[in-house]
Design goal:
With 180 residues, the protein is α+β, with helices and mostly antiparallel strands. Helices cover 32% and strands 23% of the residues.
């Protein structure tokens, strides 16, 4: 005669701890890893953004100085660019504002319309190794002349642009183009 096997059946739910979905846990681990990676990368992203902003500001200044230099060579006239370190501005009375790609306000005076001019934000600092009142004068041959902070004539200029702890320097020497 066949033997019947009897087993006692009881509910496993009451004795086993509740099971968590491994898919849900896996999502939390992935989210945690992504969060850690973002936290580790944030300082590098912020630094790269700061450096890029400073380079962009310096490039604007460099482009304007190159425009002044080329204008002096094309017109065979002296072209000056004057700086105001404290006011964070520079301008050239010898260049028409139309040569610059920054739009001027409609209500600006006629004197401003006849000048190349630029003003940086309040956080930007520009300094140089020459007198800002003397400025830089580009000669018809493209060379430059200015006076250093002691009043000595010089033909090499260094301009530093700083923003939020980042800085870049423009070095302008005789015989070299300003364009990188």
């Amino acid at each position: 005669m066949p033997r019947l096997c009897t087993r006692s059946v009881h509910s496993r739910a009451s004795t086993d701890p509740p099971r968590r979905s491994s898919a849900g846990l896996s999502k939390w681990i992935k989210l945690l890893i992504v969060g850690i990676c973002v936290l580790l990368a944030a300082p590098q992203v912020i630094a790269a953004t700061g450096r890029k902003r400073v380079r962009s500001l310096a490039k604007t200044l460099q482009d304007d100085l190159e425009l002044a230099r080329r204008t002096a060579m094309n017109r065979r006239k002296h072209v000056s660019v004057y700086f105001d370190w404290k006011g964070r501005t520079y301008h050239s009375p010898d260049l028409h504002a139309g040569a610059h790609d920054s739009p001027l306000p409609v209500d600006c005076g006629e004197q401003e319309r006849d000048q190349l001019a630029n003003r940086f934000d309040g956080n930007v600092q520009i300094t140089g190794n020459f007198c800002d009142q003397t400025g830089i004068c580009f000669n018809p041959d493209g060379s430059l002349r200015t006076e250093d902070t002691h009043g000595t004539p010089t033909s090499a200029v260094e301009i530093t642009v700083q923003l939020d702890g980042y800085q870049t320097k423009l070095l302008i020497r005789p015989g070299m183009s300003l364009v990188e």
